[in-house]
User: Which sequence fits this backbone?
């Protein structure tokens, strides 16, 4: 995972022992600078990562340094060590606890995103694929787990920045993790240390979630966990949300970059934002599917999930749910009218209706913490008949949806 450039360590004090351990681990050479020279050092040295000790003297310089780092064309991780106040939007929090191993794990996770970003930038000219959005957090989804007094305020604070899925129990949280694309978990109060320990242990043992940002707000940790992006953040809900945001943004960026690479590999026919087909690719594949089904027989059904036009985020959430849960033989696309259409190959009407109902049940669990806008789709299902064309089937599906909504 080699990238040109050293690690830049910013501090007005002596280098602590756990930073020196980075040199011993031969992870990257570490170069020291003070806060007054930090922004200039970033420009001159082009580091692979920046570690900033937030022990004092940083206040006049942190905003300029964060902006200089954010303006780099290639993702540059900024890790803020032991911050006690609200961080800039691109500064990843890290509670050092003199733990060199945890810091190396955090760095490796961040450097993987940097490498992925470099790969996307290198391959983007191959095809006409839209570059990733400047701020992926607008499409991020966080899982808020808790049931204490701070839960409503945390839901609002997080919901002002991203999509929120609420879970009042660990069991409900596990279901969401298995069915949704989650960019971070905030584990709030309401659980005993033993339950918290069990939950973190399960996450660490599942490779799907090992790099997921996990923020614990109410407990000290009883042991170490193999979770590179695990962080303790306490305080007011607004501070917790603000300092958790950079970790969640980094994960959302990684997911976005991965979708962009899949789109490049698919010849540009996948939408990098939703993970489904582009509208043009869907129209092409749907016409072929209808023609082949009419020619050789068999079943083909279509489901349309329509959403409140005032809640555009609902369409994106639904598209990502479908891209994750639908069968390999099926395909779909987010449509320009705000709906999502999925084609179920070799499927009769009754089976398609059952599948669509299950999928819509998953969609209903996402809400925006600020406005409490839920993703309740109007679902219409239809099947191909011998007299149909691709256009007539879609027209009938849209008409059914209009009647269902009225």
Assistant:
């Amino acid at each position: 995972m080699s990238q040109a450039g050293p690690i830049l360590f910013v501090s007005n004090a002596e280098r602590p022992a756990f930073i020196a351990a980075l040199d011993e681990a031969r992870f990257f050479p570490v170069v020291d600078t003070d806060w007054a020279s930090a922004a200039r050092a970033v420009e001159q040295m082009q580091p692979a990562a920046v570690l900033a000790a937030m022990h004092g003297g940083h206040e006049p310089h942190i905003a300029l340094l964060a902006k200089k780092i954010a303006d780099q064309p290639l993702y540059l991780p900024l890790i803020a060590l032991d911050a006690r106040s609200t961080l800039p939007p691109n500064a990843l929090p890290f509670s050092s606890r003199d733990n060199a191993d945890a810091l190396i794990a955090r760095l490796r996770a961040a450097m993987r995103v940097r490498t992925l970003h470099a790969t996307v930038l290198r391959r983007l000219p191959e095809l006409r694929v839209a570059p990733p959005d400047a701020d992926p957090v607008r499409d991020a989804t966080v899982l808020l787990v808790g049931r204490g007094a701070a839960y409503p305020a945390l839901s609002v604070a997080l919901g002002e920045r991203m999509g929120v899925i609420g879970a009042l129990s660990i069991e409900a949280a596990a279901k969401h993790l298995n069915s949704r694309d989650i960019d971070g978990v905030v584990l709030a109060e309401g659980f005993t240390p033993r339950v918290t320990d069990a939950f973190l242990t399960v996450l660490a043992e599942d490779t799907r979630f090992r790099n997921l940002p996990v923020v614990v707000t109410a407990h000290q940790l009883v042991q170490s966990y193999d979770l590179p992006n695990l962080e303790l953040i306490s305080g007011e809900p607004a501070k917790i949300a603000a300092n958790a945001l950079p970790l969640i943004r980094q994960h959302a960026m990684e997911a976005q970059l991965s979708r962009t690479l899949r789109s490049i590999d698919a010849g540009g026919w996948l939408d990098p934002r939703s993970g489904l087909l582009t509208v043009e690719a869907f129209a092409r594949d749907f016409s072929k599917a209808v023609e082949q089904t009419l020619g050789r027989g068999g079943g083909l059904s279509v489901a349309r999930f329509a959403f409140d036009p005032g809640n555009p985020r609902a369409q994106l959430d639904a598209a990502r749910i479908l891209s994750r849960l639908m069968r390999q033989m099926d395909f779909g696309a987010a449509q320009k009218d705000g709906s999502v259409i999925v084609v179920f190959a070799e499927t009769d009407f009754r089976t398609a209706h059952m599948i669509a109902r299950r999928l819509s049940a998953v969609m209903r669990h996402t809400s925006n913490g600020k406005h409490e806008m839920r993703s309740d789709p109007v679902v219409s299902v239809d099947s191909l008949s011998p007299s149909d064309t691709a256009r007539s089937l879609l027209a009938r599906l849209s008409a059914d949806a209009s009647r269902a909504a009225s």
In short: The chain has a mean pLDDT of 88. Residues 274-405 form a domain with the Alpha-Beta Plaits fold (CATH 3.30.70.270).
